């Protein structure tokens, strides 16, 4: 007959062992989840290795808050009333696993390659006033809101407007769509489109901290950006594209390392599962 025992009826060593196994389950499982999410980020980087202006994501792992462990006990006082005092003996700190804190884009400049297509544009960073600063083209998404991109793979739509490959309007410095009436135009290094009868300045936006921007997909970033400071040095080149800054070889190496870590945590989780099964069988036999 199997009897369910109260925790207080179990041997202390068995209770502590079961508690350690449960914590081990969570620690190993958190390692597997974090490595899976890192694999997803790396896979996305490799998939976009040929996407113009793409910025690779870097996964930041963090440990869960440490816990300070104490051994709970009591100290009996030899008196007629049988007094005892609770005691806490410090054991040490313990971590309970890791998690993916965030994916941080690497905003480093990608290589520039020549395409010979007049609507292909690239921002080439020079000396910026802030170490964390960045320059972007300004575009308008499908909801009419301003967004920023480094992907200068533009084209001209049927109405003669300069647009991205997704159909988003490329904006000028006044925040208006740019009408080119064709793909034949000249661009100066300061970002001025020279058209018949008029010159239009591209809407180049600057942020002093690129880490405050958020990715939205389709190469777009959302956040606060403003006018380019006068001391910023940069050029806008025509007929070229900024390539993705993904290092495919390094990403593949990181993916293999992440996969090995996943397998290691998987083996640990399996060992804990077998130990827990053995512990449950021993508890049942105590009845």
Outline the structure in words.
The protein is an alpha+beta fold. The chain folds into 2 domains: 7-104 and 247-285, no CATH class; 112-242, no CATH class. It is 26% helix and 32% strand. The strands form 7 sheets. Strands 7, 8, 11, 15, 16 and 17 form a 6-stranded antiparallel β-sheet that branches. Helix 1 runs antiparallel to helix 2 (248-285). The protein is elongated and about 105 Å long. The termini are close together. Residues 1-15 have low confidence and may be disordered. Residues 237-280 form the Flagellar basal-body/hook protein C-terminal domain. Its main location: other. Belongs to the flagella basal body rod proteins family.
Q: Any key phrases for this structure?
A:
32% strand, 2 domains, three-stranded antiparallel sheet, six-stranded antiparallel sheet, elongated, alpha+beta, 19 strands, 287 residues, disordered N terminus, 2 helices
What's the short story on this structure?
This protein is an alpha+beta fold. It has 2 helices and 19 strands.
- The number of distinct β-strands equals 19
| Integer count of domains | 2
Helical stretch tally: 2
Order of helices and strands: HEEEEEEEEEEEEEEEEEEEH
Tell me the helix content: 25-40%
Mean pLDDT: 83
Report the C-alpha radius of gyration, rounded. Answer: 30 Å
Estimate the global geometry from the Cα principal axes.
elongated
Largest beta-sheet characterization: 6 strands, antiparallel
Low-confidence blocks of residues = 1-15
Helix/sheet category: alpha+beta
Terminal-residue CA separation: 7 Å
Q: Provide the β-strand percentage band.
A: 25-35%
């Amino acid at each position: 007959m199997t009897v369910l025992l109260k925790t207080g009826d179990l041997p202390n060593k068995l209770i502590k062992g079961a508690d350690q196994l449960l914590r081990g389950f969570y620690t190993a499982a958190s390692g597997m989840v974090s490595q899976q999410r890192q694999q997803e980020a790396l896979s996305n980087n490799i998939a976009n290795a040929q996407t113009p202006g793409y910025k690779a994501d870097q996964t930041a792992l963090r440990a869960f808050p440490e816990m300070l462990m104490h051994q709970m006990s009591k100290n009996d006082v030899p008196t007629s009333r049988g007094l005892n005092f609770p005691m806490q003996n410090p054991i040490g700190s313990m971590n309970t696993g890791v998690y993916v804190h965030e994916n941080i884009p690497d905003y480093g400049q990608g290589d520039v390659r020549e395409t010979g297509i007049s609507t292909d544009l690239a921002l080439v960073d020079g000396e910026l006033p802030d170490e964390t600063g960045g320059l972007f083209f300004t575009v308008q998404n499908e909801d009419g809101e301003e967004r920023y991109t480094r992907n200068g793979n533009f084209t001209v739509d049927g109405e003669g407007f300069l647009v991205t490959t997704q159909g988003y309007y490329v904006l000028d410095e006044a925040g208006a769509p740019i009408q080119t009436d064709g793909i034949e135009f000249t661009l100066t290094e300061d970002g001025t489109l020279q058209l018949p009868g008029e010159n239009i300045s591209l809407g180049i936006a600057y942020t002093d901290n690129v880490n405050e921007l958020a990715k939205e997909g389709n190469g777009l970033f959302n956040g606060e950006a403003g006018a380019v400071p006068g001391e910023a040095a940069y050029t806008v080149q025509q007929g070229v594209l900024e390539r993705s800054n993904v290092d495919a070889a390094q990403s593949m190496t990181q993916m293999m390392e992440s996969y090995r870590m996943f397998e290691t945590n998987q083996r640990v989780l399996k060992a804990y599962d077998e130990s827990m099964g053995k512990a449950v069988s021993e508890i049942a036999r105590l009845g």
